[in-house]
Design brief:
The chain is mainly beta. It has one domain. It is built from no helices and 3 strands. A 3-stranded mixed beta sheet has the order 1-3-2, with no helix packed on it. Strand 2 and strand 3 form a beta hairpin. The radius of gyration is 12 Å and the shape is elongated. The mean pLDDT is about 85.
């Protein structure tokens, strides 16, 4: 989806949220966001740089 300007908002300080953000993240970089909810009802959000 190159060129799309989709935005999402995530409250990373919410209860039952675990997050991981790539430490090389910088303004203007393209990222992939993966959101998962397991059987334990914990929401896992991963932000990775696009390759």
């Amino acid at each position: 989806m190159a060129g799309d300007k989709n935005t999402d908002t995530f409250a990373l300080d919410d209860k039952d949220v675990i997050y991981s953000v790539d430490n090389a993240l910088a303004v203007g970089k393209r990222v992939t966001v993966i959101e998962q909810t397991g059987g334990d009802k914990v929401r896992r959000i991963t932000v990775r740089l696009e390759v």
